[in-house]
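ok so I'm stuck.
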Amino acid sequence: MSTFQAPKGTYDLIPPRSAKFLAVREAIATPLRDSGYGYVETPGFENVELFARGVGESTDIVTKEMYAFETKGGDRLALRPEGTASVLRAALEANLHRQGNLPVKLWYSGSYYRYEQPQAGRYRHFSQVGAEAIGAEDPALDAELIILADQAYHSLGLSNFRILLNSLGDKECRPVYRAALQDFLRGLDLDEDTRRRVDINPLRVLDDKRESVQKQLAGAPLLRDYLCDACKAYHEEVRGLLTEAGVTFEDDLKLVRGLDYYTRTTFEFVHDGLGSQSAVGGGGRYDGLSEMIGGPALPSVGWALGVDRTVLALEAEGIELDLPSSTSVYAVPLGEEARRVLFAKVTELRKAGIAADFSYGGKGLKGAMKNANRSGARYALVAGERDLAEGVVQLKDMESGDQTAIALDAVLPELRSRLGQ
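replied:
not stuck anymore, here's the structure
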């Protein structure tokens, strides 16, 4: 047992389960790469104000969950609690929006940090894959991102997820709704923190998960009834494009994402097999965020999907991903001369693009073959002094058990043929 353990609310990704996480990340990233999204990577920490302005000072993320600290030089920094603000900051800093090709389409993958009460599906360190389309106001862009996420989940074999969709209005119609909602909320029996939230951002109260609050929200005014004509038309076009693409969604008139920067289109992916932590991802349009963090007006839309919760969703549905073995060939030398020859052969195979491993530590034949089995290799290369004297190695098919003597210089072409490379 080690002296140290992973901090509370975090986890280590180790084989073989780590392969499942890599496969999920790749499945989410593939449709994005195929749709013109370029990869971006930002620092694990940023200026505190970036998140305070963008995510919102009234959100739980900023007030309760952010890991903030002061450096020796006096800078106030925070571990990133989400990806959108960082990616937009990076795009603005690099002037990507001035290169004449809008929208700027970016995708990212990384770890994020929130000081939360740990439970299944909710961690203090978690992994997301996200996508942002920056600098264009177009319903087709909103629909594209939802379709790509839907495509990624279906490619993994998931079926018990639902897409919830709503519109949060814009700067023209939301203030009227905001005032009506505040009037309603001020008449409820709410605690002091929630009343403070009513004054700062009343829409966040609708996102309160406590049953005592949700019961009182039954008669709350709906934003749908306050949308301006432009927002109604925009939302209907998003809905129409999704329907034409064969994407099933549910209208959720009370859906409010937990970040302050969302406008108009907002959506969430939920999985019915995960209990209280049912949201596996979500996003929406954030037309005013660029201006909030000191940039020009850049209407944008994006989402983030949780890798951790997607893995839990796969496990809830009993889906086993078809993961390729990390090793195709395992070399088992018997004797010092065989070690030298087979090590060179393994190096040759790797250079040719064939995944190969080697029995290290001078194990005997029985122990080395056990390791070959554990590696998942399809073939084992076995050689002893007699084999080398005859200029051959034994090629063993680990599935059938068949063993064939192969000339040393024929090993590479033979394995290429058998592995279809």
